[in-house]
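Structure first, sequence second, as always.
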């Protein structure tokens, strides 16, 4: 298996404050945010580095269980290889934001989301 990227999902208690820190202090740019008005999820990028900010509350908190978002080089082959180990997989599902995703949980309870562009 091979992955092209991994994005950490950081839980924040105050989305606006966290957003300001990552933008104003660390130089990240906001690539995308969810909600109208924005209610607590953002994708931020600086160079090749990307992070997701996830508020502890609000509608986006439903996805709070993720700790990292992985991008497999070959989504179907990676999912098949994981299944072959006997590991439980939730999905795949195609999301409203255009990704095909599965979730797996590591032995310590960390939920990992693996995704690819559904287009």
């Amino acid at each position: 298996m091979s992955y092209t990227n991994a994005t950490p999902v950081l839980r924040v208690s105050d989305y606006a404050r966290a957003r300001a820190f990552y933008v104003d202090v660390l130089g990240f740019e906001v690539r995308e945010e969810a909600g109208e008005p924005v209610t607590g999820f953002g994708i931020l990028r600086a160079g090749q580095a990307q992070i997701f900010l996830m508020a502890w509350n609000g509608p986006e908190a439903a996805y709070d269980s993720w700790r990292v978002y992985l991008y497999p080089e070959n989504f179907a082959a990676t999912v098949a290889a994981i299944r072959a180990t006997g590991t439980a997989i939730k999905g795949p599902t195609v999301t409203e934001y255009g990704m095909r995703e599965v979730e797996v949980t590591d032995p310590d309870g960390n939920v990992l989301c693996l995704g690819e562009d559904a287009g």
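Margin note: The longest helix spans residues 15-25.
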